[in-house]
């Protein structure tokens, strides 16, 4: 093993009773990351990643978003050590993958999208085997605590093949945590799961993050990313197209909707830049850019037009608007 003073930061910590503070260095540093897959038959090589530079701060919940085929899974598999990069530098918790591969791999846990579970092993045996693969000594394992954390204590001795789909996803989360990683990657963790499992997952994620764990989330449910993530990066066609705090991304959408109940009255002439539509029960919706038009200007136009406002509400831009603006 390579002697490195940073090894102290990579040792197992008790996630149920507090953690050491995040290091001054970022949790993840990616520089010039490229991945080109060899051609199939006579086809051309496929460039999955085209020079990504990305820094993920320690202790954050970070969203990695993008359409299908954008390069998210390739990036995650490179971080996990499952795919070899073509070019670039990857550092996890201060450890360069090329210099300290063992330490960098020990610092990260991945909950994959695929249900890669041995159907003939019980959850308890699966976790014990996973811990052994990571070299966790028996005295440092926390199998019972993990089973309780993900709500599988009652199914600890059952065959995994008899677990429901939601329970199998819980087991995937527990397997990703057996070695107490500093960074946890959740790859589409709530795809096809019920509301109860989704709430349990997010409760546990918030708890782990509060204890200092860095969370990287990929999801197609943009409302989840909007409510969970501190920062978001969007990847499209193997390139990083934007990265900002969630609040800054939403502010950049520059879109707002003012909805009023006018009692069936038609909309009077509006200031330039305001689009008007009619919704259910005759309500009027005014879509505008706050940077160009104020809500006061719309209300004043209604007053001058003799339209009485019985009730009103506003709708802010959401992450879906931002996502569409970048990837179409």
TrEMBL record:
<dbReference type="GO" id="GO:0005524">
    <property type="term" value="F:ATP binding"/>
</dbReference>
<feature type="compositionally biased region" description="Polar residues">
    <location>
        <begin position="11"/>
        <end position="22"/>
    </location>
</feature>
<feature type="domain" description="ABC transporter">
    <location>
        <begin position="28"/>
        <end position="262"/>
    </location>
</feature>
<protein>
    <submittedName>
        <fullName>ABC transporter ATP-binding protein</fullName>
    </submittedName>
</protein>
<dbReference type="GO" id="GO:0016887">
    <property type="term" value="F:ATP hydrolysis activity"/>
</dbReference>
<dbReference type="InterPro" id="IPR003439">
    <property type="entry name" value="ABC_transporter-like_ATP-bd"/>
</dbReference>
<dbReference type="InterPro" id="IPR027417">
    <property type="entry name" value="P-loop_NTPase"/>
</dbReference>
<dbReference type="Pfam" id="PF00005">
    <property type="entry name" value="ABC_tran"/>
</dbReference>
<keyword id="KW-0547">Nucleotide-binding</keyword>
<dbReference type="InterPro" id="IPR003593">
    <property type="entry name" value="AAA+_ATPase"/>
</dbReference>
<keyword id="KW-0067">ATP-binding</keyword>
<feature type="region of interest" description="Disordered">
    <location>
        <begin position="1"/>
        <end position="25"/>
    </location>
</feature>
<dbReference type="InterPro" id="IPR050763">
    <property type="entry name" value="ABC_transporter_ATP-binding"/>
</dbReference>
<dbReference type="InterPro" id="IPR017871">
    <property type="entry name" value="ABC_transporter-like_CS"/>
</dbReference>
<keyword id="KW-0813">Transport</keyword>
